[in-house]
Amino acid sequence: xxxxxxxxxxxxxxxxxxxxxxxxxxxxxxxxxxxxxxxxxxxxxxxxxxxxxxxxxxxxxxxxxxxxxxxxxxxxxxxxxxxxxx
Length: 86
Hints:
Elements: H1 9-24, E1 30-33, E2 42-49, E3 57-66
């Protein structure tokens, strides 16, 4: 008996959401994916170019966590929430 591999619609949407995020981030930034998903999907590490030719980027020592939500909407709404540091 042959086992058929399947992908659910939510898995397809999740993959698309990662692709869109990667396309929207500055090219020097790095996106580290988490798995399995427990509320945080990835962390983005910020880098900036240190030369005019844009051949070397250094870390800014900053990062932020991302939770992605895929949907059928073609809207461009983006909601940002800060946990805040006291």
